[in-house]
Design goal:
The chain is mainly α and 290 residues long. Helix 3 runs antiparallel to helix 9. It has 2 domains: 42 residues, no CATH class; 205 residues, MetI-like fold (Orthogonal Bundle).
Amino acid sequence: MTTHQLSRPAAAPARTGRRRIAPRTLALAGAAWLLAAVFLLPYLEMVVTALRPADELRDAGYLPRHFAWSAFVDVWRESTLGGNLKVTLLVAGGSTVLALLVALPAAYCTARTRFRGRRLFLLLVLVTQMFQPTSLLVGLYREFYQLDMLNSVWTLILCNAAFNLAFAIWILTAYISSIPVELEEAAMLDGLGRLGVLRRVVLPLAMPGVVTAVIFTFISAWNEFVMGLTLSTDPRSQPLTVGINSFIGNYTVEWNYLFAGSVVAIVPVVVLFALIERHVVSGLTAGSLK
């Protein structure tokens, strides 16, 4: 009786050294860092100028000899920037809520109902997105003047919600269309009505699309300038973008106050976008796969 010994496989040689990175990967990473630096340098210059003392504004050096926080303190004490920030928060938040309350039922009806004129409705929604607020400013100003609604927060809320409504409807329609109809039918068999299905089934599943519509509407209303400048003439009722513009005079520009106010204006939007960026990406790709 013979026995056969099974030969054991030779041990793999131990890996020594670090993993080699392909030259293409290094080139892409270097190009990405270079591109990021190009976009971040203006913001860095803005922060540095805001921290530069007034007597060093004309110095040639990139960094100041002394850093001063006085511009951030004085910009609140000596201007209406605090009230402008409150107006911007009300306008951005109110227009976002109003646009979402109108866009969500409209998108659900468009995605689930095959009614006559559906394509025409979507086409009209797309056409309204092509309108620029500047082309309608004269008519809007005359209308709100006759209604005695100039220098009102509600005026800016209505205008910003109207100009961002089309984008919200398109995003939500694409996302709701990707949700299986069978989930809604099962919920209706359990006794839920249309509103119940929309609130308990569709809305939780469509949350990435909702977040995308919220962030884009909020940022658009936050950064709006032309309508705020035209429809608000009282400095206390103007949004933050218009209030910052007051630091630009006819003969002088208060650069440290201007950049300090700009830093205050961009920080909330940057923080908000960083917190929900992953939802924005998933919402933008909604409906791309079947």
